[in-house]
Amino acid sequence: MSNHDDLTRSTDNVVIVGGGLAGLFCALKLAPRPVTVISAAPLGQGASTAWAQGGIAAAVAEGDSAEAHAADTVAVGAGLVDATIALGIAREAGARIHDLLRYGVPFDRDLEGKLAVGREAAHSARRIVHVRGDMAGLAIMSALTEAVRATPSIRVIEGYAAEALSTGDGAVRGLQLRKVRDADARPVTMASGAVVLATGGIGHLYAVTTNPAEASGLGLAIAARAGAEIADPEFVQFHPTAIMVGRDPAPLATEALRGEGATLINDKGERFMLARHPLAELAPRDIVARGVFAEIAAGRGAFLDARAALGARFAEKFPTVHASCIAAGIDPARQPIPVAPAAHYHMGGIAVDAHGRSSLKGLWAGGEVSSTGAHGANRLASNSLLEAVVYAARIAEDINGSTIPVPARSPATATDTRNSAMPAQSEASLRAMMTSHVGVIRDGEHLAEAMRTFAAVERNAVNVALRNMAISALLVAASAWARRESRGAHCRIDYPAERPELAHRTRTTLAAAREIADSLSGRAAVRTPQPMIA
Ligand SMILES: Cc1cc2nc3c(=O)[nH]c(=O)nc-3n(C[C@H](O)[C@H](O)[C@H](O)COP(=O)(O)OP(=O)(O)OC[C@H]3O[C@@H](n4cnc5c(N)ncnc54)[C@H](O)[C@@H]3O)c2cc1C
Description:
Layout: H1 4-8, E1 14-17, H2 21-30, E2 35-39, E3 56-57, H3 66-76, H4 83-102, E4 117-118, E5 128-129, H5 136-149, E6 154-158, E7 160-168, E8 171-179, E9 188-191, E10 194-197, H6 218-225, E11 230-231, E12 236-243, H7 256-259, E13 263-265, H8 285-297, E14 303-305, H9 314-317, H10 319-327, E15 337-346, E16 349-351, E17 363-365, E18 370-371, H11 383-400, H12 424-437, H13 444-460, H14 464-482, E19 507-508, H15 510-521
Helix pairs in contact: 2-5, 2-11, 3-4, 4-11, 6-14, 12-13, 12-14, 13-14, 13-15, 14-15
Bound molecules: flavin-adenine dinucleotide.
């Protein structure tokens, strides 16, 4: 699809932005209610979901329980997980896995025909449902894409990106879209009284990331620009074992490899995680990421060694990782794999309640772009697909139970319509600065410099996507600057300890982030910025 008229003629009530697990599942759950799904990339591409290798955490095995799953989630989240939310999600896991089975996802079974479950770091039980070893994401995307294409009530618009929300009287009235990769394209507006943002994460704001290019924080930025509250943006999870073979995004060596016994070694062959944590390679992700970062910073390098644990079984058990290694000339059955931490998952996002509602009337958010409180300062492995599917269903239920105002046919264009081609150098500089200044290890001075830069990019950029990237980058940097402690995935070398009095989630706005940046650059009257940790 689609021509300009097809878009502006729309009178659909519900518009879902994003074609990953959260967006597609929500659309399917809303059927037969008419919905429009907008996806910047063709369905199946440009979505982190398709790249998920581990699977979905669900306490479906005998002897496991939702309570145990929630307890593990709370333990990893470094004091910021909302325990009620975590338990609610864990309890709904079984039902959502069965929904996915009905949509055709071929989860692996054991010899008795029960769902097969794998183990991942910091889970106290084997509870990761998977597909053919490491193919869960691909299988989920292809089953849901097929189901969506076969559902007549779902209209899919591919190749358009949402770039702004239209608002009026404190509520969402529609959104502004633009054809992607076309600098001359005019924006088009769509009326809608119910918008669901399911645009994924922010990993691509970083130079080293496992996320697709579409995960560059645009959904987060447009919600923030419309005034929605943002929660916990400083908490970015870095995957400890991205495969370093010069690719952008970096291919991932799934955590399940370590679950199967692969170890982390340096160039001397030493297992450096043994000295850092009792669980060694299976310690929480933030600790492993910092361990890997430290070995690389010390010049010893970091490698994932699966020779003893998997050897010749590697190709069969982990076909995706195997293919990435072979393409780079590494045989993981016989050679250690070079790895480094990479921006992987955003615990923060658009603040939502238990129904997926944001602070802005008519705006829901689900999946990685949202922040429900389930992950706190650090996400437990394989909880994100679960959260996405649980909240997609809850949002659909909430929308079906709400009165959605009939949309005006032609909402006003939300922002100015200027655009230019994405300046590649500016984008690369922003991403490099996120990695060097707002990355695995942070400090106040570098965060302040990053904020001043991102605020200037926001003010001056003519390219709309770059401006939105700068907004999301600013939100992360400002909250990282304001949180003067180290907690979970947020590590400040100038404030290395956790501070009990700061054991609260962050709620912030774009206005608050801009205020901090302005105060640091002397643009505003100098005063101590409002603390954002609520
Ligand atoms: C390599 C990798 C492995 C992972 N492994 C696991 C795992 O094993 N288990 C687990 O639980 N989690 C895993 N995760 C995390 C998990 O995959 C994501 O958190 C989850 O898939 C997010 O789903 P989503 O629907 O929110 O977003 P996505 O699947 O990323 O989909 C976002 C969609 O929004 C579209 N989009 C973005 N911006 C716009 C815009 N402005 N306008 C229109 N469309 C837009 C994109 O094109 C895409 O269709 C992994 C992530 C990565 C990157």
